[in-house]
Amino acid sequence: MENSARQYVELYEQCRETIMSHSCEAMNAVREEAFESFRSSGLPGRKDEEYRYTDIREMMAPDLGLNLNRLEIPVDPYRAFRCDVPNLSTQLYFVVNDTLFGKALPKKELPEGVVVDSFCNRQDIVARYYNSLTTADAITSLNTMLAEDGLLIYVPENTVVEKTIQVVNILRSDVDMMVNRRVLIVAEKGSKVKVLFCDHAADDRQFLTTQVTEILAGEGADIEVYGLEETHQRNALVANTYIRQESRSRVHHSLITLHNGKTRQMTRLTLAGEGAECWLDGAVVADKEQHVDNNTLIDHAVPDCDSHELYKYVLDGNAVGAFAGRVLVRKDAQKTMSEERNQNLLSTKTARMYTQPMLEIYADDVKCSHGSTVGQLSESALFYMRQRGIPLEEARLLLQAAFIYEVIDEIPLEPLRDRLHYLIDKRFRGELSKCEGCKLCR
């Protein structure tokens, strides 16, 4: 076993009792199995096809602190992370590192039966769904082994949550820190909910975050989940998301990276009920030495489902981007409709993009397409704009922004869409060079 993995095995063996004493029964029930799986597999290397574009062992190598004893970390989230998105009324929650911040909960009540709480407070629900969607993966096993609590969002049958649930994830520490987050979102039959996650770093420390999110959309449920990353260059994020859709459900899942250090995100979505439809979107703006890797799988397991996937990158400086998107259409999944696109702009000769769209089809009555492009800004478009009095740098910014807006315009939530237009414009102008609090909310 390589050293980067061995340190986590030894950590767990030494701190097993401490970890379990701060966790709920549902998490502890699968912890040993996850430990044995991780000890057997270790961390993936670059020869592993799914991890070929990101050196996970290097990302996980630093020996960082963990708050295993659940010591309270002083933070005033409202000072730096106030929420005031124009025309977007949200139910605002804060997660400090990996813990729901109980001192800053919304005053307005959610609809009856809707739960936004920690795992430990709602073990009755967590026990029914926790770790039920995950597949064999070293990062998922590591997270399941070390995570001590999590965030539960639960919507009962036929319940509509009108207000967006906004979760601001704050990385806060006086020392370099490893954080293991867990999220479980369950929308029962006929329910509807919108969730916005905003990732921020309050301190200029080295942070390493593993995150596993499970999303279950019941029959006829409608879920929108948006993730916005605005951290800093010392932050490393390895996130795995598992989504399962039952019949006639709709899921819109968008990941937007505006500033980061190294990010590797895996999304596994299963269309398990007929008539389900999904949208997977991603927008990445990266420069300097930033690294963003998105790896996706859409599994059409049953007939008559639709999937739409669009990821776009704009890379500057020495940034590295990667996209590997696989669409699997199983033998009995007739009447499938699937569209997958990955389009990328390189603004410098030193930026690099790796792209690998894939279709794997075993049914014959389907309509599927996929494609990718990697290129630079159109010289003719730049010339046209300069002829009309637009300075070269301004023309470049306008074209880059217009390119990435196609992803943002897919977001159904209009106030969020408008705010992201504004943020992306500032990002291209170099005005969001580091995380200085919640830019979405300022």
Automatic annotation (TrEMBL):
Q: Which domain of life is it from?
A: Bacteria
Q: What is the official name of this protein in its record? A: Fe-S cluster assembly protein SufD
